[in-house]
């Protein structure tokens, strides 16, 4: 879904067996069908949004070399298109899959949620690693908010119940992604507060997130704060430039080196103000962030140079595994928006130029930061689950710099993706089937 222009608010405005043989076979086949796909997920917490609102985009299988070139192993998609889910089979890439807004009313009913899950997700779990389901996108602030807001939480609860009924709730998280416009106040971060009119929806959502251990997802775009007020917001601050002096919160006295972490901490403060108990356990993650490389003449700052600087800095910030000033022990997670320029996006001209790549697969610009090769899922295992953290050698799994250019991915690299090794779940299930037949025969 296209990032929306956010309302200014300080620093940041805004899916019965009878016999013993049959019983054993049923259990083994169920294990095979519901087994998680490859455990190898990128050590880096950097992800990317793969939107497809375009008439000239390549087929889904063509994105794999691009992801390998970037070294990114976490991808967010906005629906459960079977062609897309099949394209990521046996890659180890961890997917965040969206339940489109138009499906919310159906999945709000428990029966509808179970049917959607059975039809759209379960058939792919054997080979495709699906870690998160996001119910709608920016529902509370979107154009259909009046019709959809009341069914958002019921849809989350029903789908989580359907996931739990299949024993998949430790594997798949159910949440939703918010526009930063849910904040009524965001400057300074310590004064962060949700819009009062949205509290009746957000407070019970926070209860749900705390109970299920699900993250609060926010689409955060420093670009909008800068483009709305280029004189009041320093460009280097919005671009996350490491050398910028930063800003101090006058209340907390915390130092904010860039606008993105300030926006995230404003959300943390808003959660604490709305639901103290939830604030102790709910993690804020950035489900979208990016910078356009082109736009109309009046869209200040939408240039290839600024887009390259912002996205390079955002990837570096997340890959370093650092937290925010308020939550230094919680590594920031973020998904860059987006993989491709999408020519059918509605709205401002800049909406169609958020991609790291043009539709023909060539880079829209060159990134200065490159993720280390050992962060990729492609061509090797790793053991990184949906909750992140950890790498193959038991260290923290967060990139802290160093290495040489030969160990890094380049945005223009394009090598064929390879299956990761260690397909132990499938092997186990196949062995279980064989063992079941043997036991009954004996």
TrEMBL record:
<keyword id="KW-0732">Signal</keyword>
<dbReference type="GO" id="GO:0005975">
    <property type="term" value="P:carbohydrate metabolic process"/>
</dbReference>
<protein>
    <recommendedName>
        <fullName>glucan endo-1,3-beta-D-glucosidase</fullName>
        <ecNumber>3.2.1.39</ecNumber>
    </recommendedName>
</protein>
<feature type="signal peptide">
    <location>
        <begin position="1"/>
        <end position="40"/>
    </location>
</feature>
<dbReference type="InterPro" id="IPR000490">
    <property type="entry name" value="Glyco_hydro_17"/>
</dbReference>
<keyword id="KW-0326">Glycosidase</keyword>
<dbReference type="Pfam" id="PF00332">
    <property type="entry name" value="Glyco_hydro_17"/>
</dbReference>
<dbReference type="GO" id="GO:0042973">
    <property type="term" value="F:glucan endo-1,3-beta-D-glucosidase activity"/>
</dbReference>
<keyword id="KW-0378">Hydrolase</keyword>
<dbReference type="InterPro" id="IPR017853">
    <property type="entry name" value="GH"/>
</dbReference>
<dbReference type="InterPro" id="IPR044965">
    <property type="entry name" value="Glyco_hydro_17_plant"/>
</dbReference>
<comment type="similarity">
    <text>Belongs to the glycosyl hydrolase 17 family.</text>
</comment>
């Amino acid at each position: 879904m296209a990032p929306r222009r956010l309302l200014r608010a300080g620093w940041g405005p805004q899916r019965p067996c009878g016999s013993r043989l049959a019983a054993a076979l049923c259990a083994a086949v169920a294990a095979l069908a519901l087994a998680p796909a490859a455990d190898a997920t990128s050590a880096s917490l950097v992800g990317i949004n793969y939107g497809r609102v375009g008439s000239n985009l390549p087929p889904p299988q063509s994105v794999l070399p691009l992801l390998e070139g970037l070294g990114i192993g976490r991808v967010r998609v906005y629906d459960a298109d079977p062609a897309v889910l099949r394209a990521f089979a046996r890659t180890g890439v961890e997917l965040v899959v969206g339940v489109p807004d138009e499906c919310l009313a159906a999945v709000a009913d428990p029966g509808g949620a179970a049917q959607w899950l059975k039809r759209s997700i379960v058939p792919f779990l054997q080979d495709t690693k699906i870690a998160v389901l996001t119910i709608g996108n920016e529902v509370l602030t979107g154009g259909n908010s009046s019709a959809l807001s009341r069914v958002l939480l019921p849809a989350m609860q029903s789908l989580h119940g359907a996931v739990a009924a299949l024993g998949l709730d430790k594997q798949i998280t159910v949440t939703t992604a918010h526009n930063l416009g849910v904040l009524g106040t965001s400057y300074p971060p310590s004064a962060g507060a949700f819009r009062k009119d949205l509290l009746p929806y957000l407070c019970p959502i926070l209860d749900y997130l705390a109970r299920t251990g699900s993250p609060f997802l926010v689409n955060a775009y420093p670009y909008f704060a800068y483009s709305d007020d280029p004189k009041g917001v320093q460009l280097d601050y919005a671009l996350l430039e490491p050398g910028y002096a930063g800003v101090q919160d006058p209340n907390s006295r915390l130092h904010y080196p860039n606008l993105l972490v300030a926006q995230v901490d404003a959300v943390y403060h808003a959660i604490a103000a709305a639901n103290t108990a939830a604030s102790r356990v709910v993690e804020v993650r950035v489900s979208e962030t990016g910078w356009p490389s082109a736009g109309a003449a009046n869209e200040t700052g939408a240039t290839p140079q600024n887009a390259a600087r912002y996205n390079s800095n955002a990837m570096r910030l997340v890959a370093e595994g650092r937290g925010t000033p308020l939550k230094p022990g919680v590594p920031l997670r973020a998904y860059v928006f987006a993989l491709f320029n999408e020519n059918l996006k509605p709205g401002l001209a800049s909406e169609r130029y958020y991609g790291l790549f043009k539709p023909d697969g060539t880079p829209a610009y060159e990134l200065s930061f490159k993720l280390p090769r050992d962060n990729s899922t492609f061509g090797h295992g790793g053991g990184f689950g949906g909750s992140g953290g950890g790498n193959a050698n038991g260290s923290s799994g967060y990139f802290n710099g160093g290495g040489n250019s030969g160990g890094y991915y380049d945005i223009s690299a394009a090598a064929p993706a390879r299956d990761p090794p260690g397909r132990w779940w499938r092997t186990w299930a196949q062995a279980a089937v064989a063992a079941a037949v043997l036991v009954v025969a004996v």
